[in-house]
Amino acid sequence: MEIMHVYTKRRSEFGRQCNFSDRHAELHVDIQPDDSLGGNLIMRNPVDIGTQVSQEMSEHEICTESNPTENRGVNHTEGGWPKDINPVEIEQVARYRKKVEKEESYAPIITGLGGTIESCIKQNLSVDIYQNYYVSEEIDTSGESPSAKTINVFRDPNELQRTATHMSWYPDGNRKIAVAYCNLDFQRSDPTTVIDSYIWDIGNPNRPEFTLKPVSPLVCVEYNPKDPHVLVGGQYNGQVAFWDTRKGSQPVDMTPIESSHRDPPYKVVWLASKTGTECFSSSTDGRILWWDIRKLGEPTETLVLDISKKGEIANAQGSSVLEWESTIPTKFMVGTEEGVIIAGNRKAKTPQDKIVGTFHGHIGPVYALQRNPFFTKNFLTVGDWTARIWSEDIHDSSIMWTKYHNVYLTDACWSPSRPAVFYTTKRDGTLDVWDLLFKQNDPVLSLQVCDEALQSIRIQDNGQYLATGSQLGTVNLLELNESLSVLQRNEKAVITGMFERETRREKILEARQRELKIKEKLTKSADKDEDVVDDELEEDLVAKAEKEFYEIIESGKKAVEDRQKQFDDEVDDTAADEIENNED
Fold it and tell me: At 42, is the pLDDT very low, low, confident or very high (cuts 50, 70, 90)?
C-alpha cells in the first residue's frame, strides 16, 4: 500500500509570478588576461583533496498525524426474555421455562441443536488445539548477552512536571500500570500544580486510561491483588484513601486527619487476609498503622518504631520504606531514615515484642527493601551509595554488597523470574542490571534511560517488562530479553550455595569479631586493675607527704611560739629590773 499525503498551498502565497522569454546572449563585461599576474602563481605540491566515496544523502524529518485511541467498555446484560418476565426473579424464570419445555416445537429444536453441538465436541476431543508441543524442551538462553529496550514512554500530561514517586502493575494480566505523581520537595510545590494521578494502558502512551483524583498528591499507590478494580494510596497530607474504578475517579473513603499519619506515608501494602480489605502503611512520623478499608475511621493496630522498645514516639525512627511477603504473613520489615532495617512480627503479644531485631549497615536513609522471591531469608536494601544483600541470621553486617557509586542509588527490586538478578536505579538516570551468576562487583548491563534522575522502579510479575519513574514524571517501559527474564539452568542451586557460603563467612567473621571484643574488654579490665593499684599507691604517697607537710608546719609554729614566749619573759624581767633601780 502506497502512503501519500498531498500538500496544498494558495497561489497568492507563492509571490510574484515569474515570466520567462527567449533572447540572444549579451556581453556585459570583458576582462582581458594579464601576463604580469602569472608570477604570483604558487604551485601546491602535494595537493590533498578530500573526497566522499559514498553517495550523498539528505535527512528530512516530518511530523506525521497521530491517531489517538480510546478504550470503551460495554456492559452486557441477559436478554431475549419477554417484557412481562423479569430475569432477576427466579420464580418467574422457572415458570416460563416449564411453559416453553411443554411446547411441541421445543423437542425438535433441541434435537437439531444437539447434533451441531455434538459435532463440535467431538472435534475438540479429537484434537487439542491448545496443546503445547515443546513443554519438555528447555530453551538455553545462557549464551545470550543481557539487553533491554524501551518500548513505550508515558509522560505526565500536565505542564508543571511532577515526580513519578511510585508505580503498581495491574494484577490481572499486567496490561495497565498505576502511577502516583507527587512533588516531594518540601514547601516548594506550586499551588497551581495538578494533584491527579493516572492509570496507563501500556499500549497507549498518548493519554491516560483512568484518572485518580485525591484530595492531596499521591505519594504511593497499590493495586489490590484480590480485586483489580480497587486501589489504595497514601497522600501527602498523611491520609490513606482507596478507590474503586467502577465508582469513578473520586476516592470511595479515606482516613480522617486526626487518625492519619503526621507525615506522608511512603508505602502502603495490602495484606493477604480472607476479606482482601486489610492493609498497613508506614510513614516518617515513626508509626506503622494497620487499616481495614471497610472502616477507615481509625486504625486497627498501631506500632511505634522505637528500637529501644519503650514505645515513645519521641525516640521513634521515621520509616522510608516498608516490606511484606505474602508467604510469611506474620513478618514484616521497615527501612528507616537513620539507615536501620527493623524486623517485626505482627503476631507478637505486646507492641514492644513486635520489634524483633535490627540490621545496621547504611549511613543514610533506606530507599528500597525487598525480600528475594525465591529465598525469603535473604533481602535486598538500597541506601546511600550502595546496594546490600542481607541474611536474617546475620544482624551486624550484610553478606554481599555492591561498590560505592559516584551518585546516589534511589530504588531497587529483585527479578521475579530469576533469583540471581536484581535492578537498581540512580540519580544520573542510569538503570543497572546485576546478575550474581556472572558478576558480583559490576553490573552486567547499564542503561541510560533518561537524562533526569530515576526515582522509582517496578517490574512485572513475569519478569519481562520493567517500568522506571523519573523525577520529571516520565515513566519508561522497558522490555527485557530472555537471558534476564527466563530462569537459567541450575540457577537456584548455584545461588543457594552462594548465599549459604557468604552467610557462613559472615558468621565466622562475626564470631572472630566477638572474640576480639571480649579479649579487648579483658585487657582493658586488667589495665584498669593495675591503674587502681597505682592510684592507691599514689594516694598513700600523697597522704604521707601531706602528713609530713603539716608536721613541719606544726613544729615551725611551736618553735615560733616558744621564741615569742621567751622574748616576752625577757622583756618582763628587764622591765622589773628597771623599776627596782628607779626605786633605789
Answer: confident
Q: How far apart are CA 467 and CA 454, in angstroms?
A: 11
Asked if 267 and 279 count as a contact pair (C-beta separation under 8 A), the reply is no
Q: In what order do the strands lie in the sheet with 176-182?
A: 163-169, 176-182, 197-201, 210-212
Strands 197-201 and 176-182: antiparallel
Helix (H) or strand (E) holding 332: strand 331-336
* Phi, psi dihedrals of residue 484, rounded to the nearest 5°: -100, -15
pLDDT tens-digit map of 178-201: 999 988 776 666 777 888 899 999
Separation between Cα atoms, residue 288 and residue 271, nearest integer Å: 14
Amino acid at 522: L
CB < 8 Å & 24+ apart, contacts of 495-502? 495/374, 495/375, 495/419, 495/420, 495/436, 495/437, 496/375, 498/436, 499/375, 499/378, 499/389, 499/391, 499/399, 502/391, 502/399, 502/400
Residues 6+ apart with CB under 8 A from 435: 146, 418, 420, 421, 444, 484
